[in-house]
Amino acid sequence: MTKKALRQNILQKMKMLQVEQKEKADHWLFEQLIAHPKYEQANSIGLVLSMPHEVATDPIIKHALKAEKAVYVPTTDYENKVMVFQQFTTFDQLATDDKGIRYIQAESPINNDLDLVIVPGVVFNQEGYRIGYGGGYFDRYLSEYQPTNLSLVYDIQLNEILSIEPHDYPVSELIIAKT
Prior knowledge:
By secondary structure, this protein is of the alpha/beta class. It is built from five helices and ten strands; from the N terminus they run αααβαβββββββαββ.
């Protein structure tokens, strides 16, 4: 199966999750993360603004802000294929781009040297290699900055058939929820 076909297959499974299954898995992943030493020790955290089929990050963002952690979310320059982490302070500053991805539409500090990065993805193997959405943004970021990182994953996203390429950068740890 090609990367593209595998990505499509898993995305379809993620989108087909029953609401109750997804909410239960999201809550379990949230609880695992906020009790995790990497999260507890981090003062600055990078994570994506999730789309409906992905692990919900809004509760994590709210928790981190309440715990007085600095939260950073990706801002992507699609034309130049560059991603940076921009400081997030409120949901009021968000807009949605033409790909359906939420982003900060206000000026705020950029920081790529974060204490913890929650790495998104579509398909993962047990060694932490992943297939994202195909832009390579997170692989480039991880290989350049090498932050402490982990991923929150639904069990349906696991697949050992990943073909690993030289530019692929594995995530250090997976927290996996049963769906």
